[in-house]
Every structure is written in C-alpha cells, then in structure tokens.
Amino acid sequence: MSVPRGLRPWFVVAGAVALLGLVAGGALALSGRAWVLVVTTRLPLALAVGGVVVAGAVVAVGAARGRRVRVRAAAVADAEAAARADERARHRRFLQRLDHELKNPVTAIRAAVAGLGPAAASDDGAARAHATLDAQAGRLAHLVADLRKLAELETQPIEQEDVDVAQVVRDAVDDVLAQAQAAGRPRPAVTVSLPTVPWPLPHVRGDVDLLYLAVYNLLGNAVKFSPPGTPVEVRGSDEGGTVVVEVADSGPGVPDDEVGVVFDELARGRDARGTPGSGLGLALVRVIAERHGGRATLRSRVGHGTVVRLHLPADRP
C-alpha cells in the first residue's frame, strides 16, 4: 500500500522507532548482564510495538486520505464529462436550428434567381449581378448541406464494418486527381507512401464512406492551398495500434494563434479567406475521427506548409 507524500516522514519515524527497539533489545540481550534483564524484556518490546502501532496508524490515515482523493478526482472527472456532453448537446441543437433557419430562405433565393435568368441575360450588368447571386446562393446551399451533414454525423449511429484504410487513401487520391483533370486544372503533384512490409497498413472498424470523406477533405485542402506543381504527400503508418493517415502540403501554413481553432466549425484562417470554401472541411474530419474513437491533429509552419494527421484505432485480429 502506498503512503501519501505528506505522511511519508512520519512513516519513516515509526519504522525507525520499531527498528531501534529491536536493535536495542538484541544488544542488551547479548550483553548477558543480569541487571539489564528488565530492560531487555520490556523497553525494546515497547519500542518495537509502539513503532508498529504508529506505522499502522500512518498507513490507515494514508489509506483514508487516498480514498478521499480518489473520490474527489472521480467526482471532478464525472462533472467534466457531464459538462462536455452538455456542451456537445447544445452545439448539436445550435447546428440543427441553424440548418432549419437557413434551409427555406436559401431555397427561396435560389428559386428567385433561377426565375430571373432570361431577363438578366439582356443586360451585361444585370447578367453579372445574376451570376453573382446564383453563385452565392449555391454557396449558401452548400453550406447548409454541410451543416446538416455535420449535425447528423454527431448524433446518428455510424456503420461498423471492416475498412481497408490504404484502399480508402488510394480512392481519395484518384478522385482528387480526376477532379482536377476534369476541371482543366494542372495535375496536383501528389505522392502516396503506404507501408507494405513487414505488413501493410492495418484495417479499422467504421464507416468506409465517412472515412473516405475525411481523407478526401484533407487531401482536397492540401491541394487547394498548395501552389501548383508543389508537392503534396500522403503517408500512412501503424503506430502502436493506431493507424495514422498523414497529409502534408506546401501551402502558406497556419499561424500559431489559429492552430487551436482550425477544427472548429466555420473556422477560416486569415490566409484562407480569399480561397473558396465553407470552413467546415476540417470540422467534418475532426468529428469523423472522434466518432471512430480517434482524433485529428495539425502541425504547421508559416511559409512552409501544414501536416494534418488522422489517428484511428487499428482493428487487430
């Protein structure tokens, strides 16, 4: 049984008293003198018993104090867990309410813009205004859909199937490259490094579509923020029972004061405000990772690039 730090000196004193009693008794007994018979049979025994009693009391007090500390720690942990659960519940209600409030107005705006199409085409200024309204209405519709997806993802059950993470990575890379080609953009300089020996990347349990979405979002962000022709690397590793998918880019990087909020909903860094996007991509990655018992992390250096890692528990046979 461990003794609390504050009681350790008293425990040492008690042990010393008991040891002193035993040593004194032995020494006096070996002297062979009759006049010390009482001392050899009474005093050392009293010292030894006293030391044992004190030591027992110290241990008992320490055990009681340890129980109180554990009870307090458990209560604090329960309170913190309840607070986090309440915060997540309030956050989900906010997203659901925001989706409800935005959905109908956005639908009405898009319908009105579509109805103005033929009239707007007769005038260059009106045509430009129409195009702007149509693009921004589409952006709002996409944002509402992502908010709905995020709110549902935090509440609804997810699939629990065997997922080959390496194949998910290859599919996401192929789709990002094909999308760039279809849009007439330069082919992104994406390289993929996945282990094959002594064993391939372990599988995980989860929802293959959600995990694909997480990897696709990471890769899409990396390509979007990297200058054309600069490298983007996708790496996989098995780190002590955790499957890690790492996407590294050559973009502008994330300032230190923004690293802590990049996984929040609607977060848009100073250097990203001129780049199209809803600010929900990394939030989706974070929630997907958490729903699979994992996490998402980010490291960045301004002027050099960013590394985002998706950590997932491996499904060991």
Automatic annotation (TrEMBL):
InterPro entries: HATPase_C_sf, HATPase_dom, His_kinase_dom, HisK_dim/P_dom, HisK_dim/P_sf, Sensor_HK_Regulatory, Sig_transdc_His_kin-like_C
Keywords, sorted A to Z: Kinase, Membrane, Phosphoprotein, Transferase, Transmembrane, Transmembrane helix, Two-component regulatory system
Every Histidine kinase domain range: 97-316
Domain of life, source organism: Bacteria
Reactions catalysed according to its record: ATP + protein L-histidine = ADP + protein N-phospho-L-histidine
Entry EC number(s): 2.7.13.3
Enzyme class: transferase
Pfam families membership: HATPase_c, HisKA
TM annotation in the entry: 45-64
Compartmental location: Cell membrane
Single GO MF descriptor: protein histidine kinase activity
PANTHER family: HISTIDINE KINASE 1, TWO-COMPONENT HISTIDINE KINASE
Protein name: histidine kinase
Origin species: Cellulomonas iranensis
